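Hi V.,

Quick status before I head out on leave. The structure for the redesign project is tokenized and pasted below; the design run finished overnight.
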């Protein structure tokens, strides 16, 4: 007599996502990352793999595919879901993972001369909006005194704005 076959692994993942009422988008994302994890390791079954293979995959994403930290975290969440919820095993803490780095956020700051040159090329509503934006930025930096100099009603550089 033949024993009934278990559903395929990714079908088990889908079923477990539905039992836990995960959104369809989460289900698709988890299946995607689990499939990539399995293919990355030559289609080995995850039961045959453990923390070193998970670390290798996540590090590969960060180092060779240059993924964003949130993307790497999503892949990690999918793999942890696979091991905890579908396979029923816990992975030891993954200390050897190379974490994806957030790119530094460098603000774009124009010199006073660059701001003056930019504003000199604008007129009408465009000048008004850009001028207000610059003044708000200067005021936010504590430069209230310089924010109101040289522009406004009655000055030579009024450009017809009223305020």
């Amino acid at each position: 007599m033949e024993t009934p076959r278990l559903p395929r692994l990714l079908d088990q993942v889908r079923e477990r996502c539905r039992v836990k009422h995960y959104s369809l988008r989460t289900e698709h994302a988890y299946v995607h990352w689990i499939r990539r994890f399995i293919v990355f390791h030559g289609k080995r079954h995850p039961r045959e793999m453990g923390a070193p293979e998970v670390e290798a995959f996540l590090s590969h994403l960060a180092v060779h595919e240059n993924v964003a930290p949130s993307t790497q975290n999503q892949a990690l969440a999918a793999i942890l879901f696979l091991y905890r919820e579908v396979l029923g095993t816990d992975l030891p803490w993954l200390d050897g993972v190379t974490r994806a780095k957030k790119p530094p956020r460098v603000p774009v700051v124009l010199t006073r001369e660059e701001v003056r040159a930019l504003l000199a090329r604008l007129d009408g509503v465009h000048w008004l909006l850009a001028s207000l934006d610059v003044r708000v930025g200067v005021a936010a930096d504590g430069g209230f005194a310089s924010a109101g100099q040289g522009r406004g009603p009655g000055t030579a550089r009024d450009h017809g704005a009223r305020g």
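Above is the designed sequence. The two ends are 89 Å apart (CA to CA).

G. will cover questions while I'm gone.

Best,
W.
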